[in-house]
């Protein structure tokens, strides 16, 4: 009995490791696609925000969800539209980005409060969290590294100097965001071999 119990734990650890590795590979692939097709990603994000707004309207009018919860969600969508103005260049210290992080936390709070008080089947709760709370912010999070490889042509934040001279004066910038974390993890797990001459 103990031997089978140990085998079960070893199998569980192996399954979790493979699931995490698969998730990391998927995130890396999605981040690469977003970096390659930034304009298409911007259009997709715009459509996702429109669809999310329509779902909020349906939840308010048809399902009778709390008005404050829907209002916070709609305000979040408005802030996400503000992030699209400078996409793929998202400044992590900008008030718009910081406000979007606060609103993600507020959306979680209101959703947990509502679903804690009102019974809904698990699949409905998961559908709400997936489509309304996680999908758009997660896409922005994965696309944070998309601005690293875009050539500077204009300064979205204003200022006296043009974007090209700012880029040259600043020097080569390190990659940031999810893609750099995943590349670091890839190098830690599968280090590249040194070239032999």
Automatic annotation (TrEMBL):
Its main location: membrane. InterPro entries: Svp26/Tex261. The chain crosses the membrane at residues 6-31, 43-61, 96-115, 127-146. One of its GO terms (molecular function) is COPII receptor activity. It is a multi-pass membrane protein. Keywords: Membrane, Transmembrane, Transmembrane helix. One of its GO terms (biological process) is endoplasmic reticulum to Golgi vesicle-mediated transport. It holds the Pfam family Erv26. It is found in: Membrane. GO terms for cellular component: COPII-coated ER to Golgi transport vesicle; endoplasmic reticulum membrane; Golgi membrane. PANTHER family: PROTEIN TEX261, TEX261 PROTEIN. Belongs to the SVP26 family. This is Protein TEX261. The lineage of its organism: Eukaryota, Metazoa, Chordata, Tunicata, Appendicularia.
